[in-house]
Amino acid sequence: MRLEDLRGRTAVVTGAGSGIGEGAARYAASLGMNVVLADVAAERLGAVAAELRAGGAAVLAVPTDVRDAAAVDALAEAAYAEYGEVTVLLNNAGLESLGFTWEVPADEWRRVIDVNLLGVFHGLRSFVPRMGADPRPSHIVNTCSVGGIAITPRMTAYAASKHGVQALTESVYLECAEAFPQIAVSVFSPGQVATRIFEDAPVHEQTADDAGFWRDQIREGMTPDEAAKLLFDGIARDDFWILTHPEAFERLASKRARVLGEKLRPDALFDGRN
Ligand SMILES: NC(=O)c1ccc[n+]([C@@H]2O[C@H](COP(=O)([O-])OP(=O)(O)OC[C@H]3O[C@@H](n4cnc5c(N)ncnc54)[C@H](O)[C@@H]3O)[C@@H](O)[C@H]2O)c1
């Protein structure tokens, strides 16, 4: 899909009120796309919408909790009512959680799975049938993470959710190839991108050090605008794997492959640099 062909077409972005989603929405608008912004943080969503409108973009902002299947259906209805088609869907909303598995409150664990994994499922169930009814090419990108192939202790709910997104995306790629071959499906697997994700992660007494460490780590990461450009370059090339940090991904993937292939214990993942 050539980026110049996206002018006048519609992109739907979840988690568009901040970070990578905001960057992707801004990039889509810069391509001349209509942008449908969804986020549970209505105030931040409104601010992003106002900024993009001020730049001349056609914007529809729909406060949406991706945990709620009916709300995501309403998002799809609103997008199609306003623009009549969707060419790019970015299932991107996500959040983090830190701590030993048995210490993280059950509601927090469930919220991570609900947003990161079921939120993507809700996007697919609401949009795929509509996008599939349109014979024109379209593209779905699910934001996963290097956490979709790697393991980090004390980030277990996140890793479990992202491994789920990885499996879901590979499966849906095959399902779309069978049922709706005009829909391309990609997984976006960022490394460190400087966003608010660890600012919003609940901090418990036991996780304060980890939270500080990760906040500092991703502050050094690439900007959301840079990540968004790589995301759209991946769409243009029709890559299945869209990466921000290919070398880090390769290193983690090789370790994962070795652990699986040689049936090693998980500590082998942490031999040498991780
Ligand atoms: N920043 C990184 O280093 C990094 C690395 C790998 C993967 N990711 C993934 O990128 C995606 C975007 O994260 P980000 O880093 O831009 O973080 P961010 O916190 O800046 O943005 C995430 C957005 O998702 C929204 N959101 C949270 N719960 C929601 C819900 N229930 N319904 C709708 N929206 C909701 C938040 O309000 C926020 O605006 C996530 O899926 C995250 O896991 C980020």
Automatic annotation (TrEMBL):
Domain Ketoreductase as annotated: residue spans: 9-217
InterPro entries in UniProt: KR_dom (IPR057326), NAD(P)-bd_dom_sf (IPR036291), SDR_fam (IPR002347)
Keyword Oxidoreductase in annotation: yes
Keyword match Protein biosynthesis: no
Keywords: Oxidoreductase
Gene3D superfamilies: NAD(P)-binding Rossmann-like Domain (3.40.50.720)
Matches recorded under CDD domains: SDR_c
PANTHER family: DEHYDROGENASE/REDUCTASE SDR FAMILY MEMBER 7B, DEHYDROGENASE_REDUCTASE SDR FAMILY MEMBER 7B
UniProt record similarity statement: Belongs to the short-chain dehydrogenases/reductases (SDR) family.
Name of the protein in its database record: SDR family NAD(P)-dependent oxidoreductase
